[in-house]
Structures are given as structure tokens and as C-alpha cells.
Design brief:
The structure is a single chain. By secondary structure, the protein is of the alpha/beta class. The protein has eleven helices and 14 strands. Strands 11-10-9-8-7-12-13-14 form an eight-stranded mixed sheet, with helices on both faces. Strands 2-1-3-5-6-4 form a six-stranded mixed sheet, sandwiched between helices. Helix 1 packs antiparallel against helix 11, helix 5 crosses helix 6 and helix 5 packs across helix 10. The protein starts with a strand and ends in a 5-residue tail after the last helix. The structure holds 2'-monophosphoadenosine-5'-diphosphate (ATR).
């Protein structure tokens, strides 16, 4: 029986087992494949992963806080995982550990628009931001980055901009300093897409206090995505939706990354509706 798993710390809250087991059952693979949650502490992560191929695992998802470690221990990696420097999907095949990053493609697939040619603002500078910046830039968006701690935004800029194409470099909003020039005001209206990757809102923080956003700065024609999800749509998404903006819930991004991982492991078309229903049925949704 090929085994699959999500590795995290903590991992108990993960919706991935329900989502993937529902998909496997829908495709008639429920008796053959099984997807489980495995709690693993950072110090045990590498040894745990290396033991998995011998235990019958075909692959795994990797979540917080292991995504960087997963990339680091892989023998080969996709271009995206390499540029992002983190992996959320591992494949065990041919005696090798392969690393992929489907958080990037999951965001793109969840968007109601093509990012090509649009101006996007990514809030945050952690792992989720790196995936978003790489994905959007690869799809042809011009990407501005804002982060509470400026140095981390600068780091993403340095690592993900293309030195061969300086005119196409990622632009950075550094709390007033914009690529060396001073901006009078952070102009939210300029963006066709705003992606929140920060944890703001998860524990009741007010996004309009903590992030450089104005409630009135959204409107029809803006897409607002929140990569973080809770038990219901975030305050950010509720306010944006009320102004007529299109919103993308983090749970939809989770479903889309899961679908891409499922396809990588099984080679089959993922049953999106089944995965979505399973993900949304947990935790009060
Ligand atoms: P992940 O890898 O999941 O993206 P992370 O590396 O912990 O997580 O990054 C969390 C992001 O949320 C960071 O950009 C963090 O900003 P800092 O780099 O300044 O720490 C951001 N964040 C968390 N709480 C925040 C808050 N109250 N206001 C603004 N940004 C916040």
C-alpha cells in the first residue's frame, strides 16, 4: 500500500489528511493508498524523512516549520522549490528524494485572474511570501513587497530578482523608500492584486492597524488573497469583499496546492470538488 503523509509540528490541525483521503477514495484508490499526519520535531525531521521510502511512503507534504529543511535534504528539486528555497511536497522515487513547491502553483491556480502584466503587492517576507513572490513574478506580474521588518523584504528582493534582467527586478516598498526614491504615500489603489502572507488576523489582530492597507483602498477590479486561513474568511477578506473586490480564501489556496501535490504523486487528475468539500467541512467551515 503506497503511503502518503503530511509532516508538521504541530500537525494535528492539518486538513490535508481529510482532503487527500477523500480524493483517493473518490478515485477508487482508498484501499490502495493512505494519507496520514505525522508529528515530527525539527531535530528529528531529516532522519524521519530519510526513513520514509523504506516504510512504503511514495511521498509527503511538509508544513510549518519544516519547509526549508525539506528542500535542504532533497537530492533533486524543481526549479520553483530551488528558487523559493523551500519545499512543501516530497516524492520518494528511484532511490532519491525529490522536492517540489506546490504552494506557488496553488496560489496561481486559486486566482480568478492571470497575474501576467498586473501589479501585485505581497505583504510579508516569510516562506509563504517567497513562494508568492516567485510564483507571481514567474507568471509575469510586477511584484512589490512590504514587510514589517524591512531587512527581510530586502532579502527576498535580493534572492528572487533576476540579475540578468535588472529592469525586470522585483520592486520593494520599504516603508516609504521605493527603490531608492521616496514615495509620498503607499498607494494601495495601484494594485490589481494584494496577497497577504503574514499571520496578521489569525489571532484577532486588526489588519488595518498592522498592515499598510486602508479599508477604503479596495474596490471592484482588485483581487485580494489571504494565504493564511482560519475558521472563516479573515477580516481582511470580509472588508475587501464588501467593497466589491474579488477575494481568494487561504483555504482555496490550500486545496489548490493539495491538488497539485496529489497529481505529482499519483499522476491522476485530482478531484478538486471532493478535495474542496473535505477541506471546508472541517473546523467550522
Ligand atoms: P511563513 O513562513 O509562514 O510565511 P514566517 O516566516 O514566520 O512565516 O513569517 C511571518 C510573516 O508575518 C513575516 O513577514 C512577519 O513579519 P516580520 O518579518 O516583521 O516578523 C509577518 N507578521 C507576523 N505578525 C505580524 C504583525 N503583527 N504585523 C505585521 N507583520 C507581521
Amino acid at each position: 500500500m503506497p503511503r502518503l503523509a503530511v509532516l508538521g509540528h504541530p500537525v494535528g490541525h492539518s486538513r490535508s489528511p481529510a482532503m487527500h483521503n477523500a480524493a483517493l477514495a473518490a478515485l477508487g484508490l482508498g484501499a490502495e493508498w493512505r494519507y496520514e499526519a505525522i508529528e515530527v520535531a525539527p531535530e528529528d525531521f531529516a532522519a524521519r524523512v530519510r526513513a520514509m521510502p523504506g516504510e512504503g511512503f511514495a511521498g509527503a507534504n511538509v508544513t510549518v516549520p519544516h519547509k526549508t529543511a525539506a528542500f535542504a535534504l532533497a537530492d533533486v528539486s524543481s526549479e520553483g522549490a530551488g528558487r523559493i528555497g523551500a519545499a512543501n511536497t516530497l516524492v520518494f522515487a528511484d532511490g532519491q528524494i525529490q522536492a517540489h513547491n506546490t504552494d506557488a502553483g496553488g496560489l496561481i491556480d486559486a486566482l480568478p485572474i492571470s497575474p501576467s502584466g498586473i501589479r501585485a503587492l505581497v505583504l510579508g517576507a516569510g516562506g509563504a511570501a517567497r513562494a508568492a513572490v516567485w510564483a507571481l513574478r514567474t507568471e509575469g506580474a510586477v511584484v512589490d513587497i512590504w514587510n514589517r521588518t524591512e531587512a527581510r523584504a530586502l532579502q527576498i528582493h535580493l534572492e528572487l530578482s533576476d540579475p540578468a534582467q535588472p529592469e525586470d527586478s522585483i520592486q520593494i516598498e520599504l516603508q516609504g523608500e521605493f527603490r531608492g526614491a521616496v514615495v509620498e504615500q503607499f498607494d494601495q489603489d495601484e494594485y490589481g492584486l494584494i496577497v497577504n502572507t503574514t499571520a496578521v488576523g489569525l489571532h484577532g489582530e486588526d489588519p488595518f492597524e498592522e498592515l499598510p492597507l486602508r479599508r477604503a483602498g479596495f474596490g471592484p477590479g482588485t483581487v485580494v488573497a489571504d494565504m493564511v486561513y482560519g475558521e472563516g474568511p479573515s477580516t481582511l477578506l470580509q472588508v475587501a469583499a464588501a467593497t466589491g473586490a474579488e477575494v481568494v480564501d487561504g483555504l482555496e489556496i490550500l486545496v489548490r496546492q493539495g491538488a497539485l501535490s496529489f497529481q505529482i504523486w499519483t499522476g491522476l487528475e485530482p478531484p478538486l470538488d471532493v478535495m474542496r468539500a473535505a477541506a471546508y467541512s472541517l473546523g467550522g467551515r
